[in-house]
Amino acid sequence: MDIKKSMAAQAYAQTRSAAAPDPLPNSAEEGVARFLGTFSETLARGEDVARAAMTGGADPHALVEALASSQTAVDTVITVRDRVVEAYQEILRMPV
User: Fold this and answer.
1) DSSP secondary structure string for all residues of 66-91
2) What is the largest CA-CA distance in the chain?
3) Per the domain annotation, does 16 fall within a domain?
4) Per the count of CB atoms within 10 A, which of 1, 33, 42, 64 is most buried?
């Protein structure tokens, strides 16, 4: 596993709000739905800040912070995707 990707996943986990931890999901589907919802919210927030920065409504620090958060979220999704593909390939290699 690429060290850069694992660090991205850790950084993303640390940026999430520690004040109000999420309850555990009841099923894998609920967990995936929550994960993808958080991902889309992060990207939307980054787009809003970028749009505001282009019109002069946000400072450069907020833009850099939003872009870093978005990049961390994308790196996390890429890592999860790679793990899912790896697990699927491992299942295909199993003897029947």
Assistant:
1) HHHHHHHHHHHHHHHHHHHHHHHHHH
2) 61
3) no
4) 42
Give the rounded percent of residues in the chain with a pLDDT score beyond 90. 41
Q: Is the residue at 40 inside a domain?
A: yes
In a domain, 21, yes or no: no
Entry pTM: 0.63
At 81, list the tokens: 């995707």
The band of 79, judged by pLDDT with boundaries at 50, 70 and 90, is very high
Is 9 part of any domain? Answer: no
- The number of folded domains in the chain is 1
**What does the pLDDT average to over 31-46?**
88
Confidence of residue 85 (pLDDT cuts 50, 70, 90): very high
Q: Which long-range contacts (CB under 8 A, 24 or more apart) does 2-10 make?
A: 4/75, 5/75, 5/78, 5/79, 5/82, 6/79, 8/71, 8/72, 8/75, 8/76, 8/79, 9/75, 9/76, 9/79
